[in-house]
Write a structure and sequence with these properties.
A four-stranded antiparallel sheet has the order 2-3-1-4, with helices on both faces. It contains three helices and four strands. Helices cover 37% and strands 22% of the residues.
Length: 123
């Protein structure tokens, strides 16, 4: 099993997520991870981006997992929360085309989990 730290940002870095959006997004992303035989170890986010720590087997291609996480969450969130559509009426996409993926080989998982947990806390 391997671990990857993923970060997805919203299209145009729009600040659109509320706590309700983030709670539902975590449920959706956990479901997608389960479909890929992966485990969402940690999830957190702010109004314009999210962090995920995912445990995945070597047979899973990170790019396919990311495409599914972003595609499914975008589609479902836009369907369930019509308020998000007004931010993306032209592009019809929730997420930026890019993402960050960093393997978590050198740092202890507890350090990565703590980093992700603290992302939405005010400074």
């Amino acid at each position: 099993m391997m671990h990857v730290h993923l970060v997805f940002v919203t299209k145009f870095r729009h600040k659109v997520f509320t706590d309700a959006h983030l709670r539902r997004m975590e449920e959706i992303m956990r479901s997608v991870c389960t479909d890929f035989e992966c485990t969402l170890v940690e999830f957190n986010g702010e109004d314009n981006h999210v962090h995920l720590l995912v445990n995945f087997p070597p047979k899973v291609a990170v790019t396919k997992l990311v495409n599914s996480l972003k595609g499914v969450s975008s589609r479902r969130l836009r369907q369930e929360f019509p308020d998000l559509v007004r931010h993306y009426w032209r592009a019809n996409k929730l997420w930026s085309g890019s993402y960050f993926a960093g393997t978590v080989g050198g740092a202890p998982l507890s350090v990565i989990r703590q980093y992700i947990e603290q992302q939405n806390r005010p400074v």
